[in-house]
Amino acid sequence: SIQSALQESGPALAAHGVAFAGGRHQAQRMAVYDLLGRRIEGDETHDVAGSWRRLVDDIDAAAATSVVVSEELLAISRPRQAKALAQSLSAHRVFVVVGVRDLGRSIPSAWQQEIVKGRTYTWDEYVAAIRDPAQGPATAGVAFRLRFDLLRILDAWEHAVPRERI
Questions:
Q1: Angle value at C-alpha 102, between 158 and 28, nearest 5 degrees
Q2: CA separation (Å) from 9 to 12, 58, 64, 94, 95?
Q3: 22, 104, 143, 105: which is closest to 71 by C-alpha?
């Protein structure tokens, strides 16, 4: 929702000196896949190689006073990946905004996303894996913890960005 709103509000944001990097969320998603060294499972039509560099070039060329990159996949960044992002944007002041919502909404949403991606975990299996990865599909529990462990996320970004800018 956030990314769609930012993309659709591009002209209005620009009037206030804010640019949505790459102009489209898809450009940001491909760039983050490239930054994290990931490929899109089952989608060989998108070549992500070089996408991060293209997004950085777009940010560097922006006439706006502020540029927004919004991609939830950045939550799984490890400290070295967060550092790589910060170093590639060293000409800019980088701020990290972490959106957090309650687990009562996050768990069903995360399960639905897994199902949309073709996973076949039942609700009970998924919840069991979140409680204890040894009790359910390990990939489900590990993936959830990577994306929703707030302290891990904050720690990864604190290796790259000063605490007062997180």
A1: 55
A2: 5, 18, 14, 22, 20
A3: 22
Q: Quick one: tokens of 113?
A: 């996303």
Q: For residue range 108-161, what is the model confidence (pLDDT) as tens digits?
A: 988 998 888 888 889 999 999 998 878 878 788 888 888 889 999 999 999 999
The pTM for the full model equals 0.84
d(CA 83, CA 161): 8
- Reported as a single tens digit per residue, the pLDDT across 63-121 is 999 999 999 899 999 999 999 999 999 999 999 999 998 888 889 988 998 888 888 88
Q: Which residue carries 């991060």 as its tokens?
A: 52
